[in-house]
DNA sequence: GTGATTGCAAATCTTTTGCACTAAA
DNA sequence: TTTAGTGCAAAAGATTTGCAATCAC
């Protein structure tokens, strides 16, 4: 039955599509990242999940892999806290809520958020991306 | 002539206002930061300036001071790159251009930029701040 | 005086790198 | 077989911390 292999095949195709050799750890990490819903992970987090899932992988390789995936357009890096990188599996144009208390990062639902009167880029430059981070704190703080 | 002491007095008042004891290095750093136009500095940068200006101060103290100033509302921290903090002397509500090539951070001129259809904060939370970072790259990249 | 502040060095934390080893094509 | 990828440990960079010495009040 081929059905059981579909998630595996999807991950494989994704790597092929990005021109990345499908090694054991890249496949395993791709499955952790892309099966299921969109997610926001740190390298440390993903490494923990990989270890729990009996995928032998070092933290250094997780970092390398996340950077390769990002360069290949499979992931997007989101910077919200100094000294910590989040990687977002949703690479489409969208923005984020950041819960300062817990360190959680979430997509802002809907695609309604828009920016008015964005100034044009200074001469000699163009806009690569616009990031909007809505920082949330616990009520009553 | 008291005129010559005005910048010193302004820095002193600012520290008093924030409830911070006006030590030599806090005064010196405050003058570097707040005399002149608004600026965006990293700890490393400011430390370099202090040393050039013959203000004896260690990098650790620069970090501590920047954090104290931020906690006191004299500065605002802007996060644009993983692993690097910028401190902005303009604490009013505004947004930023970030030049990815050079690492320069600039205020977006004018106060016209506005956000449309911002979703309400999830239950139990409130919006602490909205950061907009417009990432620029050199033309033709 | 006395409690806050500083300097320094060491510690911490995140991320990257060098290199011998292993696995994919 | 040949080249890319991995693991590990070490390096690197940014920031924080512990503690004795120093300074503001």
Explain this structure.
2 copies of one chain form a homodimer. Chain A is of the alpha+beta class. Chain A folds into 2 domains: 3-87, Winged helix-like DNA-binding domain superfamily/Winged helix DNA-binding domain (Arc Repressor Mutant, subunit A, Orthogonal Bundle); 92-136, no CATH class. In chain A, 33% of the residues lie in helices and 27% in strands. Chain A is built from 4 helices and 7 strands; from the N terminus they run H-H-E-H-H-E-E-E-E-E-E. Chain A has helices spanning 6-18, 24-34, 43-52, 59-71; strands spanning 40-41, 76-81, 84-88, 96-99, 104-107, 114-116, 125-138. In chain A, strand 4 (96-99) and strand 5 (104-107) form a beta hairpin. The longest helix of chain A is centred in the N-terminal third of the chain and has 13 residues, at 6-18. The mean pLDDT of chain A is 88. The interface between A and B is large, with 42 and 42 residues. Chain A binds a DNA duplex (25 and 25 nucleotides) through residues 21-26, 42-44, 56-61, 63-64, 67, 82-85.
């Amino acid at each position: 039955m081929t059905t059981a292999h579909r998630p595996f095949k999807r991950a494989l195709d994704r790597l092929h599509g990005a021109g990345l050799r499908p090694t054991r750890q890249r496949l395993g990490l791709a499955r952790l990242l892309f099966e299921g819903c969109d997610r926001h992970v740190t390298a440390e987090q993903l490494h923990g999940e990989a270890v729990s899932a009996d995928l032998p992988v070092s933290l250094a390789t997780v970092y390398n892999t996340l950077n390769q995936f990002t360069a290949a357009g499979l992931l997007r890096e989101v910077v919200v806290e100094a000294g910590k990188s989040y990687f977002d599996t949703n690479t489409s144009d969208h923005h984020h809520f950041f819960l300062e208390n817990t360190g959680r990062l979430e997509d802002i639902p809907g695609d309604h958020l828009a920016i008015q009167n964005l100034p044009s880029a200074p001469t000699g430059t163009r806009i690569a991306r616009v990031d909007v981070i809505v920082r949330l704190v616990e009520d009553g703080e």
